[in-house]
Design a protein that fits this description.
alpha/beta; Rossmann fold; 17 helices; globular
Length: 373
Amino acid sequence: LGCCYVSKPERKIVLLGKTGDGKSTAGNTILREKMFIPKVSANSVTAHCERRQRKVHGRKITVIDTPGFFDMDHNDAETKSEIVKSLIECAPVVDAFIIVLKVGRHDNEVVQKFLNTLHKDALKHAVILFTFGEQLEGKTIKEFVKDSSQLQELVDKCGGRCHVIDNKYWKKRIWGNKSNRVQVKNLLKTIDKMVEENGCCTNEFLQKLEKHIQEDEKNISAVNLSPEEIREKAKEMVHEEYVKRLAGVATGTLMGAFLGIDVVVRSVVTLLTPENPQAVIQIVRAAAQNMTQECEIGSYLRAGITAAGGALCLAGAVGAVVGGVTGYKAAEEADSVNDSVTRAVADTYAKALHVNEKVQDLVSVASKDIKAN
């Protein structure tokens, strides 16, 4: 009888973590080749989203190394551009989010940010990968995690999925737990099991991005370009378009869409639907501030505010999603991008779902107002 070889599925993995915790070198360890250049500077604002891929254990693995979003306190154009780029690289689906944390004296604030920011839907597709494993000093990774209630909570919310590598001391070992080769093989097995149980991670926004990429691919002349080059060119075109279209949306909102927070995804998609999204964003933002003077809004929007059942006060208070995940005013009050994301997930998720419906109503009437004027 002949042998039947069954190829293993390709995997797309996204690295999340703080600058300095070994995120880029973890990507190199997974791919078994130095393909990412570790950031020398501690300033994550200058970092960029990067994608690399190669065959590992007989199958293609794609790793997306994101900037240090979890230590960013900025709302600038470059940060927004990199989040949009990360979203485009993730489209249409992601197999796993890998949360990279450093073994050793832990920054509890960073762990708490992960707990507050990552919604349960994202955690269903998440695995924790500890770096600097040699610093365990004889402890198992489970024993290390038990020493911190916050770490234990995060691991539990990720379904107990955690692994450990050491980018310096475990590179040459072939066997045993202190072998990167063994740990990466086990990590990929964990991802396979997770995908089998929970499926891949996607949302309406990622699907919308993929649709636009494919549309642009059809419009690109294929002369002397490979399919891979055509797709890269299409992704660049979509990136340029979306950066412009989302210029009025705060970084916290984009981070929420990147992390798959349902209410934020819906709102971003809603805001992208009109022909003139920037004008709509400005009108809805003004509405969220309860600025309803005649000089600022048209007749259609004034009627729409009434039709929306007075949702504007609610939106300003608990989660309009425009101008920062929890509303324009909340984003202004938040100390950082992370704070605005955290408030959305921890405090206002259920109410924001209701508000999102009202935002859809307002977007509809605002679009009519723009056309009428």
